[in-house]
Amino acid sequence: MAPHPLSALSLDETNLARDVVKDSYSDVVIQFRQILLHEPPKSQVTAFLDLEHAGKVTDETPRPPRLALATYDVIGGTKFPEYHESIVDLREKKRVGHEVVSSDAHHGSLAIHEFDTLVQVVQASPLFQAKIAELDLPEGFEVVVEPWPYGAPDAADGRMRLFQALIFARDTRSGNPDSNFYAYPLPLIPVMDAHTKEIIRIEELATGGKGDPLTGKTHAAHILGHNAAAEYVPELLPEGTRQDLKPLGVVQPDGPSFSVTDGNLIQWQKWSMRATFNSREGAVLHDIRYDGRSILYRLSMSDMTVPYADARAPFHRKQAFDFGDGGLGHCVNNLALGCDCLGVIKYFDGVLVGSDGTATETKNVICLHEQDNGVGWKHTNWRTGRAVVTRRRELVVQFIITLANYEYAFNFIFDQAAGITVESRATGIVSVVHIDEGKTSDYGNVVSPGVLAQNHQHVFCVRIDPAIDGPKNTLVQEESLPVRLDKRINPNGNFYEIRKTEIATSVGLDVNSAAPHNNRVFKIQNNSKLNPISGRPVGYKLTPPPTQLLLADPNCTQSKRALFARHHLWATKYKDHELYAGGKYTLQSSLEVGGVHDAAARNDDVLDEDVVLWSVFGLTHNPRVEDWPVMPVEIMQLHLTPSDFFTCNPAIDVPSNKDPTSKQVGEVTEAVTCCKL
Amino acid sequence: MAPHPLSALSLDETNLARDVVKDSYSDVVIQFRQILLHEPPKSQVTAFLDLEHAGKVTDETPRPPRLALATYDVIGGTKFPEYHESIVDLREKKRVGHEVVSSDAHHGSLAIHEFDTLVQVVQASPLFQAKIAELDLPEGFEVVVEPWPYGAPDAADGRMRLFQALIFARDTRSGNPDSNFYAYPLPLIPVMDAHTKEIIRIEELATGGKGDPLTGKTHAAHILGHNAAAEYVPELLPEGTRQDLKPLGVVQPDGPSFSVTDGNLIQWQKWSMRATFNSREGAVLHDIRYDGRSILYRLSMSDMTVPYADARAPFHRKQAFDFGDGGLGHCVNNLALGCDCLGVIKYFDGVLVGSDGTATETKNVICLHEQDNGVGWKHTNWRTGRAVVTRRRELVVQFIITLANYEYAFNFIFDQAAGITVESRATGIVSVVHIDEGKTSDYGNVVSPGVLAQNHQHVFCVRIDPAIDGPKNTLVQEESLPVRLDKRINPNGNFYEIRKTEIATSVGLDVNSAAPHNNRVFKIQNNSKLNPISGRPVGYKLTPPPTQLLLADPNCTQSKRALFARHHLWATKYKDHELYAGGKYTLQSSLEVGGVHDAAARNDDVLDEDVVLWSVFGLTHNPRVEDWPVMPVEIMQLHLTPSDFFTCNPAIDVPSNKDPTSKQVGEVTEAVTCCKL
């Protein structure tokens, strides 16, 4: 039987796509970058889903074609590799779309083998070796090459495909391969031409502090003379780990409350959804419903950008697009039982491809589990002393990525009151450069001797494709606004007005300039369905976090290639395959092309239409010493909650059973729960 | 041995205070309101704490006097009761302070016996009975009288001490005393003179909708004809509780990681603090330290206000100060094992007094437990595949209060990375009034037939008395600000500036008008101590949530009696016993007196001084149908995190042990944790 339209590419399908592509060529080498499901048009999927939810799907039900998008280089005919993209129909076993993308327009996403090459080329470079020799590293230190995307090219770079590497030194004397080399940054950034595989230059980094010029060498002869170890693996901690933390476990004697059937259909506490994994976006959730009613068609992390604010060249080129530049497939963590979540866990595997296009399974890239999050709702009737209290149980879909020094955990969290939370946890090791002894800097904070953690921002974009009781929805801006004393309408001064504004045309919106004065929130509603109790359109509330947007000058490249980061919430009209806030091609981009900014600029009508929301939020991260050597999680959350979608609290039927496993310290008293008012 | 200066009044001490007060009078009746610890001057406490933390306290160490504040009415000599306040020295067994507070100036806080009287007087009132008869309640419905504080008096009310009652009807036919009467609001508010114990008037409430006038009767003859049941106790739910939620328990086989000694000294994961309970503020934490270093002298919920926005009189008088009006002592929940938190719980009891001043113990008013909150920090070395991941364990000090229809859970949360979170969870039943069939309103939302949930705000104030490595601290406003392209200082446009402004004079500050553009945060730092790594003053970062401030017209009473709600963060100079943001007397106040607004208006110098911070945040709550009949928790959080206080991540030594109790669904694979980049 054909796979469900909302299932990821299998190993076999991926290999089939590879074969079809390879069979289209002869006498050339094909080097693959990614093979992704090319999702079917929404119209075809929703037709299928309507049948499915009506219980009418049979083996004969027509299914959309299974399509794969393969991206790859063709190496042969011309001097340099050509970047191609093909759409493969897996049923027909043929290419149904094909495009050669000129490097004058875009660069294909980075592939892991390019990073491997970079490391080898840097290490073998006599020029690099000479520069290292000048630094006079202490005995027992070896050089570590950390591959990075190049960021935005400068004018002189032209359209070359470039990679850069940050350089560190590792103290090998402990014999421990996980000794933290980030404590020893070296002031060199070699730059490699990806086509010639040559080091075209080595940037020598300024290492000064306040008052020092933007360029020029100021560091001491023995550059690491003032640096110090900063270990995080437990066996290297000078004082070991703390010994007084007692175990805390989560037990689910009857198993989890969720089920996973049909490969990827998750059902839990009236929720249903399908989960897929792909190497560009990580975990993606589809066809999200509560009690059978449609809420979202698709939910995903769309992209993010991390620009650094050090004014000294070439640090303006430290700007990662962690989803767009190379996809996160090869950065995704294989999660471990008892480490990344507690309780009873269901893991999902993913599919990745190597440079030859061969698919491999990557284990445990998504974990699914339940968690308790405190009191869910409670009321005590003080007249009778009767308390009814429920716990807030949550379902978590988690994936974690490692991007060189840094990690992000992304959690899609569902609760019993029909709320959805998208959570991002930033952790890992902050990006650092060398700073001379005794200096401080306007560009960051000294977090360890000789180590400057540069100021930067993390700006995330979550793509929300709503389907509130159907695909035709409307975004409404809702503000709570003060009203002056007025004997006619506000005689006592306590009235405030709720002003609702329907968003008719695709646009980028802000919660910035007056958030606390207007309490601006957004509702996505279905104007054709009224709540039978309140008479208002059924909807969900979206509360975009009023976090800082991109700080870089709007006229600089760092800003122009991340136009999505200029507004908190974008509303665009749905278009098949328009998934990426920063555009399809972010690697080495100078301008965001085909991203959410362009989509909004179409000025599409989005009133009672298939509107898509893009929520942008982030963290201005001016590092503190406490972020070193591995930073405690910084937690950011985006909330979607039903607003007149249901006819009462959807969690009102959650049982208020006493947990039998809880225990009391000391004298056990007969606990009553009541209010003695 | 004398009690620790940071311990709450014991039962015996409270009764002793009662006796000393009563012995000061003859031939009168003394009716008590509250008996609270009158905390010793900070100078005396810190002198003691310095010795204590140096291990030098002996039985002979001088201790501050134990003082109690008793508030009470003297009934006898004059026509009306007189409100008195006395300070009692418990060692000397005598009054050392005494004041008669005129009702021309302030009203004493409400006492439970006044609410009991109100209910009786309303029910017995022939006028009230006649009004009820007019409403022609259905067979089997009985009247429920819900006592409320009166809010701000109107000019005509003079200085009378008044109480109001909201009126509901309860369907008795189920025989279940917890059938939800809030589903049947009646349009009457009787007002009682507390001294004469007479109903002075009964307000007849408008029940109209959009377009209807602000006053006047519009409701149908059989007023409850269109209302419907809205039950929340499980046995009354029409479809019962959901049956597919499987148990999830928290087990701590070796017990908790915390200890509680000396009555109230909590020690956990390098943290130490003392917890007390009093009937005005609930749980209060004192002398909070991490690894022996002082962070906060005192942390407490100071007050809150809940103004309602319905323009129709007398709804402007729906404005509770849930801490100030009567203290929350009699509203505090006695927490139950296995309900209000999971795991191994330590409960603390409290002391309350009745109208005769006799102290009673109230059990389990604070609970202390640990919780897991996901990944704490993680880093994977992609070269070796080695992942180090720790869990984020938290210690929670929780108390929950019920205020008639509504509940709040307050959590002080401590984490291993030395962060403090103050969390407020709003739940319970939203306050409702009657609305005619088929109408909708600008003043709220119809959440059940005939039931209008009025728009309102919750504005909280947390009092933070910092002691960052000592009492002399400075508040610093820190903003991240854009910088224009400039070849001298910002050649690539990516630089942004961090601007720090020391707050020299007591003041109210906002994060409102430009929060996302300036990323305004605050640091409380000790300028006399520099971090040895970064060279910056040691400090803690405070991130005031950029939530909406009070919306009421600044010239109306609702606004003037809650001046504290006009700014997000107040900085004042410490003054003994200045604890309450809304002032000591909020019951029936017309203006905030002696609150944080007045404290800031002293224009005290707070640079390198004993500065106190008051963080104001809240929720503009425009109810949704999903808030009915009991609302899912709305969670608000305030974060305090170390910022260059330590020399590295304080949680770096947290062990990364695998949890042995976690289980995997389905086929068990050999999970590796690595990044394959």
From TrEMBL, chains A, B:
Cofactor(s) of this protein: Cu cation
How does the cofactor bind to this protein, according to its record?
A: Contains 1 topaquinone per subunit.
EC number, UniProt record: 1.4.3.-
> Where is each Copper amine oxidase N2-terminal domain found?
4-93
Q: Where is the signal peptide?
A: none
Short name of one Pfam family: Cu_amine_oxidN3
| Name of the protein in question | Amine oxidase
